[in-house]
């Protein structure tokens, strides 16, 4: 296993050497298992300090993402639980719910991410309080126009959160820690979708028409109550990056330790954003290649949003069952997302190798739902689409490592990629998954998505090629600098000609 016995002056029997080697092998295997499970070997001091990060950053980020996905995603559960009929939704207005949300998201996305490069990783903490207020407002809507307006506002309020958290994590966690923590953060979306389904199912059975309010309105009231603790905890928990943090839970000694951790992996302190820096980012490949990759990913992970349409068209399930069935997919997504990240980190940051798995699963699921071979197969195709969502955390862990030495590029690339991914989500489903035209099969839309799934798979290898090219360039540069340092400039010593002795005649 590459572990050599320590040298000693005492001659030991061969059998003892073999025994020592066996212990060493066993130990190294156990360490490898621990690395796969959680962060690997480290000093007790570092372990405690990373746990401190988890206590504050991860608790706030995960709960915050949970309530955001709960509040933004419960619109589907409300729609199938009576909101459609109560507010007289018709045609493609269901698609417009996502379009207005995404439009608001886009309005706030890039400005908030640029602000992030100048200020804290959470650009505006009061946004979290506003989010909670808007969630309550959904319970009082009377028209579809009011729903669309609130969807736009809540999309705008959500825009700084996910990319800000990912940038924040990249400023505090090392590569062996980052992937699994992004996955834990992202898994809150599955938990939120599952909980929303169970919550709506329970409310529909127990509170529908209670106090004269339909069950879907009670859903928004309960979601607003659940959202309240998030912004309150964020006031105390959110740090800045290690170089400028003023978090109350960090003393100067701990700050120094965190800075040293980042310096060891070449995560540098932020610098003021300038036009020169923006030009440098635009001239570097990650912003273009990663953005295209995320566009493909965002589009081909949409089918589960239309699972309920197909289920409802079968006329064989109750509202309660339609709310519950998609939670099975969410559970699958939760397990697979965590598995991808754990394996990726545990194998020493194997990113592209792990990403191949969810990309392949996505293509298989897309082909199945596009062909629609039958009830069982179509149900399975929708279900396994959720197993492809785990590509997102591994990709962003990879982006943090690719842009490790430039905090501004890291923030801009993540923000722009996420923005353009949502841009395409805003209009592509409206065109190719129009509920009014193509429901319940969506054959044309899912066929297009099958082709885009191939594009997602291909982009993994495109990114890998660029990463390897950069590594080769860096290696050549380092080799050139080493040779330059080793070459001693020799000053030639002038060669003196032998003195010519004048010829003297002998007499």
UniProtKB/TrEMBL annotation:
Domain Major facilitator superfamily (MFS) profile: 57-473
Membrane topology: Multi-pass membrane protein
Pfam families: MFS_1
Subcellular compartments: Membrane
Highest rank taxon of the organism: Eukaryota
TM regions (residue ranges): 148-170, 182-204, 216-238, 285-304, 324-343, 379-399, 411-432, 444-467
InterPro entries (alphabetical): MFS (IPR011701), MFS_dom (IPR020846), MFS_trans_sf (IPR036259)
Molecular function via GO: transmembrane transporter activity
Main location group: membrane
GO CC aspect terms: membrane
Keywords assigned by UniProt, alphabetized: Membrane, Transmembrane, Transmembrane helix, Transport
Stated family: Belongs to the major facilitator superfamily. Allantoate permease family.
Protein name as it appears in the record: Related to transporter protein
Species name: Phialocephala subalpina
């Amino acid at each position: 296993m590459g572990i050599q016995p320590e040298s000693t002056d005492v001659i030991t029997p061969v059998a003892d050497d073999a025994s020592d080697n066996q212990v060493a092998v066993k130990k190294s295997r156990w360490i490898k298992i621990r690395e796969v499970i959680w962060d690997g070997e480290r000093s007790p001091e570092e372990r405690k300090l990373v746990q401190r990060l988890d206590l504050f950053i991860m608790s706030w980020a995960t709960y915050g993402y949970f309530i955001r996905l709960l509040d933004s995603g419960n619109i589907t559960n409300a729609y199938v639980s009576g909101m459609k009929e109560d507010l007289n939704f018709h045609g493609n207005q269901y698609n417009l719910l996502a379009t207005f949300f995404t439009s608001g998201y886009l309005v706030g996305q890039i400005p908030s991410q640029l602000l992030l490069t100048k200020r804290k990783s959470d650009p505006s903490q009061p946004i979290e309080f506003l989010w909670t207020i808007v969630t309550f407002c959904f319970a009082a809507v009377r028209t579809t126009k009011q729903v669309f307006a609130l969807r736009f506002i809540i999309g705008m309020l959500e825009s700084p959160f996910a990319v800000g958290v990912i940038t924040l994590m990249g400023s505090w966690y090392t590569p062996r820690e980052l992937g699994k923590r992004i996955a834990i953060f992202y898994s809150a979306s599955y938990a939120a979708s599952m909980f929303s389904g169970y919550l709506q199912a329970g409310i529909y059975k127990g509170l529908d028409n209670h106090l004269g309010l339909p069950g879907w309105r009670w859903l928004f009231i309960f979601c607003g109550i659940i959202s309240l603790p998030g912004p309150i905890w964020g006031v105390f928990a959110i740090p800045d990056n290690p170089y400028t943090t003023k978090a109350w839970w960090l003393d100067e000694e701990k700050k120094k330790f965190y800075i040293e951790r980042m310096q060891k992996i070449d995560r540098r302190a932020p610098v003021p954003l300038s036009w020169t820096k923006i030009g440098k980012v635009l001239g570097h490949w990650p912003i273009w290649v990663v953005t295209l990759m995320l566009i493909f990913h965002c589009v081909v992970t949409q089918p589960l949003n239309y699972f309920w349409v197909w289920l409802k068209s079968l006329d064989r399930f109750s509202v309660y069952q339609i709310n519950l069935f998609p939670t099975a997919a969410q559970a699958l997504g939760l397990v697979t997302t965590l598995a991808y990240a754990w394996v990726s980190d545990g194998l020493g940051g194997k990113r592209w190798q792990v990403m191949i798995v969810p990309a392949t699963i996505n293509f298989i699921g897309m082909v199945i739902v596009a062909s629609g071979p039958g009830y069982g197969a179509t149900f399975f195709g929708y279900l396994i689409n959720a197993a492809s969502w785990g590509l997102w955390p591994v990709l962003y862990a990879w982006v943090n490592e690719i842009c490790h030495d430039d905090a501004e590029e890291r923030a801009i690339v993540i923000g722009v990629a996420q923005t353009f991914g949502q841009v395409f989500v805003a209009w592509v489903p409206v065109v190719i998954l129009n509920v009014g035209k193509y429901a319940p099969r969506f054959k044309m839309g899912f066929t297009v998505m099958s082709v885009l799934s191939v594009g997602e798979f291909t982009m993994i290898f495109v990114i890998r090629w660029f990463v390897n090219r950069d590594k080769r360039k860096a290696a050549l540069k380092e080799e050139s600098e080493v040779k330059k340092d080793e070459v001693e400039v020799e000053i030639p010593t002038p060669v003196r000609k032998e003195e010519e002795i004048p010829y003297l005649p002998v007499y």
